[in-house]
Request: fold
Amino acid sequence: MTGFETIDERARAHDQWGAVAYLALGVLFGITLVKSEAVSWFRIQEMFRFQAFHMYGVMGSALAVAALSLAAIKRFHVTTVHGEPISIPPKELGRGYRYWAGGGIFGVGWALTGACPGPLFALVGAGVPVMLLAVVSAMAGTWVYGYLRPSLPH
Amino acid sequence: MEWVYQPWPWFAAGPIIGLFVPALLLAGNKSFGIASNLRHLCSAIAPGRVEFFAYDWRARGGWNLSFLGGIVLGAFMAATWMGSSDVAISPQTRASLTALGLDDLSGLVPREVFSWPALLTPGGFVSVVVGGFLVGFGTAYAGGCTSGHAIAGLADLQVPSLIAVAGFFGGGLIATHWILPLLL
Reply:
């Protein structure tokens, strides 16, 4: 057996372990999306009508925990579990069109479907099969963006 | 163990969601963001000759598609085995939605809008098909969704994410207050 095969096998084992780990994290995320009711069209309507604190609480506390975690990761130069450095690529501002225009278009879709991308998929699992069509539609939307991308302002 | 079957309050669910940002970074330097999966799926299924989809989706998006599969599975598990109750929205929201013409406010989503037969109504078609399309187009254009911009991007104090989130809300308010009343 040559060294290359061993490295290859180790890399494959690493990938397989990784796929299971990400799947497990996804399961936890899916459970949380349903149990927090963030997948509910009703909760999204309540949010856009400013009639309850629930969704603001969910997103605000998620943001606070994420921000504190990122600050700690940077401050203490934390690495991944494999010892690799952690880097967060900055988003390019450019002329900013893509953020307000793309963001606004997504916002309209978010209020209409009552679901951002995570909940869109979660609802299929949670027993709203018609959302499968919304997922296909969302893929079509992403595809059309990819096709038009060279002629859109960014 | 009663909490398993009850809806989770925001102060429990929110921090758990926030922890996915560091968890994915620690697991393999991955950025939390669900919308990228729509791009990976396009790249895998129908890349056409579009430059935006010409990349190795397995290498770049394999982990995220795995995460996505977990979301569907986790949502199924929660809906099937972890109790289900109607969503306790505020009385004002009930009144607003009833005034829009919705009779059935049970379940996670209104059945009058989100069902196969309802696709033949303007409200159902626009909510599912047009809404879905705009979610896919908008998130790809904006380079992220609620997870990538509103949580991960804002947590990293990124200005582009702040603009995007303002856009999300602007669009959402327009759709809620001006478009939905015409549809439902």
